[in-house]
Amino acid sequence: MVLPSWDAPPHTSGVRRLPPTAAGGGRRGVQAYPEGVSPDTVTESEKPLRADALRNRNKVLAAARTAFAQQGPDVAISEILKLAGVGSGTLFRHFPTKQDLLVAVLEQTFDQLDDQIVAALEDEDPWQGLVTLLTTTAEMQARDAAFLASVGPELFAVESLQQRNERMMVRMSGLLDRAKAAGVVRDDLAAEDLPFLISAIGGATQSCAPASVVGTSPDLWRRYLGFVLDGLRPQGAHPLPQPPPTLAQMKAMKAAKASMRCGAE
Fold first, then answer.
1. Rounded to an integer, what distance in angstroms lies between the CA atom of residue 197 and that of residue 116?
2. Domains of the chain in sequence order
3. Angle formed by the axes of helices 126-150 and 98-122, to 10°?
4. 18, pLDDT greater than 50
5. Of 23, 89, 27, which Cα lies nearest the Cα of 61?
6. Quick one: pLDDT at residue 7?
7. Which residues contact 19 (CB under 8 A, 6 or more apart)?
8. What is the SS3 assignment for 236?
9. 220-227 long-range contacts, Cβ below 8 Å, gap at least 24?
10. Does the structure show a pLDDT above 70 at 20?
11. How many CA atoms within 13 Å lie on the side-chain side of 244?
């Protein structure tokens, strides 16, 4: 996939690129220096953002997420600037290319998912924690479906996103281990199964998107989430014909899909 470029040339002279640790914004784009590091020992590109600069960056991210969700990655820069209420210089200062902005929005999405997994782990009820996580994830997919469907799997190969994905998989494994120990989910459910189940719910979400036009609820996807949740229960579980994919196999599938898409273009 050839990522779309900005529809106006970025003025990158003197632009300060953000360090990877600040790329996702929010709680991971913190302004504090690491322990043992002072402002005198870091380069200009490693310095944290001022409060006003961080606010502007977050405005751009929020606007871009909305614009991408509504119109995909081909959205005009004017739409993002209008939603953010900032000038083009502010956008280009933080995101010199459209890929920089796309990756930052995805990082923020991954970080929010990670927050949901942490909250699920902190829930005293293992089953309710899992239900809340899957429901919230489905809601996020409903909101960002157009964006997530259009960016292409090649972006998910970016190192910062792979690191986030691996961290989330470890935490989801812990979430399922706790639920299995409590006897509330089937023993053969693996963390690697969850992205596929969530994706299946996402497919229902996209199918239900025009539901209001024909008089049914736009939340019809919740019905199919209910079917999935019932299938996770241990009662009535039967042996499955195939084992779950490994994390390495999941990465290989995404890489193959990206390669096929790039070849087609």
1. 17
2. 20-99 (1.10.10.60), 103-264 (1.10.357.10)
3. 170
4. no
5. 23
6. 52
7. 45, 46
8. coil
9. 221/138, 221/142, 222/135, 222/138, 224/200, 225/134, 225/135, 225/138, 225/201
10. no
11. 15
Confidence of residue 132 (pLDDT cuts 50, 70, 90): very high
C-alpha span between 59 and 84 (Å, rounded): 5
The string over 69-100, giving b where at least 16 C-beta atoms fall within 10 Å of a residue's C-beta and e elsewhere, is beeebebebebbbebbebebebbbbbbbebbb
Backbone angles phi, psi at 191, to 5 degrees: -60, -35
| Residue written as token pair 């199918």 | 207
Phi and psi at residue 77, to the nearest 5°: -60, -30
Q: Are 13 and 5 in contact (CB under 8 A)?
A: no
Say if residue 108 is exposed, middle or buried (CB neighbours under 10 Å; 0-12, 13-18, 19+).
Answer: buried
Question: Mapping DSSP to helix (H, G, I), strand (E, B) and coil, where does residue 235 land?
Answer: coil
Q: How far apart are CA 156 and CA 162, in angstroms?
A: 7
Q: Which residue do the tokens 């690697």 mark?
A: 192
* Alpha-carbon span 123 to 116, nearest angstrom: 11
Q: Confidence band (pLDDT; 50, 70, 90) for 152?
A: low
pLDDT at position 28, please? 41
pLDDT mean over 108-134: 94
250-260 in b/e form (b: 16+ CB < 10 A) is: bbeebeeebee
Tokens 């991408």 correspond to: 68
**pLDDT-derived band of residue 38, with 50, 70 and 90 as boundaries?**
very low
